[in-house]
Prior knowledge:
Blueprint lengths: L4 H6 L8 E6 L2 E6 L2 E7 L2 E12 L9 E10 L2 E11 L4 E10 L5 E9 L3 E3 L1 E8 L8 E6 L4 E5 L10 E12 L2 E8 L3 E4 L9 E5 L8 E3 L4 E11 L9 H4 L2 E13 L2 E6 L4 H5 L2 H7 L3 E6 L7 H14 L2 E8 L12 H14 L5 E8 L18 H11 L4 E9 H6 L10 E5 L8 H6 L4 H11 L5 E6 L33 H17 L3 E6 L18 H4 L5 H10 L5 E7 L5 E8 L2 E8 L5 E6 L5 E6 L4 H6 L7 E2 L5 E3 L4 E6 L1
Parallel strand pairs: 19-31, 20-21, 20-27, 21-22, 22-23, 23-24, 24-25, 25-26, 26-27
Antiparallel strand pairs: 1-2, 2-3, 3-4, 4-10, 5-6, 6-7, 7-8, 8-18, 9-17, 10-16, 11-12, 11-13, 13-14, 13-15, 14-18, 15-16, 19-28, 28-29, 29-30, 30-35, 31-34, 32-33, 32-35
Amino acid sequence: xxxxxxxxxxxxxxxxxxxxxxxxxxxxxxxxxxxxxxxxxxxxxxxxxxxxxxxxxxxxxxxxxxxxxxxxxxxxxxxxxxxxxxxxxxxxxxxxxxxxxxxxxxxxxxxxxxxxxxxxxxxxxxxxxxxxxxxxxxxxxxxxxxxxxxxxxxxxxxxxxxxxxxxxxxxxxxxxxxxxxxxxxxxxxxxxxxxxxxxxxxxxxxxxxxxxxxxxxxxxxxxxxxxxxxxxxxxxxxxxxxxxxxxxxxxxxxxxxxxxxxxxxxxxxxxxxxxxxxxxxxxxxxxxxxxxxxxxxxxxxxxxxxxxxxxxxxxxxxxxxxxxxxxxxxxxxxxxxxxxxxxxxxxxxxxxxxxxxxxxxxxxxxxxxxxxxxxxxxxxxxxxxxxxxxxxxxxxxxxxxxxxxxxxxxxxxxxxxxxxxxxxxxxxxxxxxxxxxxxxxxxxxxxxxxxxxxxxxxxxxxxxxxxxxxxxxxxxxxxxxxxxxxxxxxxxxxxxxxxxxxxxxxxxxxxxxxxxxxxxxxxxxxxxxxxxxxxxxxxxxxxxxxxxxxxxxxxxxxxxxxxxxxxxxxxxxxxxxxxxxxxxxxxxxxxxxxxxxxxxxxxxxxxxxxxxxxxxxxxxxxxxxxxxxxxxxxxxxxxxxxxxxxxxxxxxxxxxxxx
Length: 659
């Protein structure tokens, strides 16, 4: 059986959403699923997106059912109209949208609608995204709803709270002499630093978080909102040619950057550890430096799970790292800071781990697995010092760390005292807010800001990225991640199909490129088994083609194994002329230069490599080698390539050796 192209690329047969490029003078935007992204003026990105979104009580985003779509374009600009319904089995909301662009650069996006039933939501309305490039740390003028105008700057480090509130309009310069103003009407808006969740933007959204949520839009209650974009100044003409279209990229390799390739490890979800034992030989050959073993007594984890962790460590040769959730619950099941409860719970974890050699231990109170909004009171929990002291007493001589087993967002909002921990950690997922392919790959743009922020407040301690994958293992913002019986792309998927596709492998390669350049000490990417597993194990969810063919590996295996083998290698400076499309990582490994390239787009790309000489050979993971990489990653063929013109198919990953 041969997998379809869609299965190779995305792990799902769900079609890629159609897009339409809209143009009006120097203004361009891409229409996708009824919303706008990549709004540019003379080729310069002004806004990342304008979207009308409807979210449920768990922050899941509805996929709008669009009808009566009309798209008209002529010399006077463009106009788009459509009707949409967002619904599930219990509730529904309908709205009509109108999008108009004019040659003078004016853009309006209006939405009017009503709830067809009482509609419970955490947010319904417009979201505006400002991009990062040319915006981070730059000036912005904020007009508030009371008419006040304040000059400020977009945050440099990731802001844990809301940098701007009560917003009516935002103005910023996109090129010398050209300013764009984005005006939002119909409700009060505020901004959050979207980089907290690995999104590559600053997000301005409707309805302040200080108001109660979820809230109910009563049946028949109207919705009327509008976003308007206006230009001041005359933009220069956009550059043309292949480079402007994104087909060509140049990667320049420089000297030693001063950082080293991080240690690479895999997550061990307790519920999948036994299944992973059956594939221990494949995991051993991948060569992970460590395995992060998740242990949560609230789920009934105990001695049996610890024993399985120990057997997996022995079978794979990897160091074991314990990720221990400390319940810290009183007799009624409520969070508590009671020192006696902390000592009791830590002692229970210690006793369950008796005889298991953990090289490192990280601890977190259970309540910190859930989000606490800025301005809210954190639930009762032991202080950082008491928590770490108790863990050190229970595991003497072992490196003890912590941070957040949820996302960087939660770590940024509850930062540990500098220097207290032996290492600092957090996890990540790129599908918290959006589930489409472009949004997933865009998240990599946020990583320099995240890594830099942790370094700034981490007290110089080793920085460990804990279990990170496309699939969400937990949901800090709702009851649980979204189940995915249809095997589709959607935000907050517990099981995301792209873990099994080339897009997932390219995203992993891009993540590791950023982590290595930033000097992160260790990265836990993917898992031994489960939704983010790098080896094939039959699951409780369908895995198209894999369940029939049963190959030993997922395509991500090739990427993780190849990077794990370079641990400690000197990282070289690299620069991609189109980092959104092509990510690159170069290291000195075995006395030669190894360059990894990842195509983060769904189109063919041609790459020219500069700054490195010698004969080049490559192992390329793409559509043509997908099956071979899954059946035996070690035998992926090595071919000669011309560094002046390296072709990369959609979501391809290339490992290139020079020398």
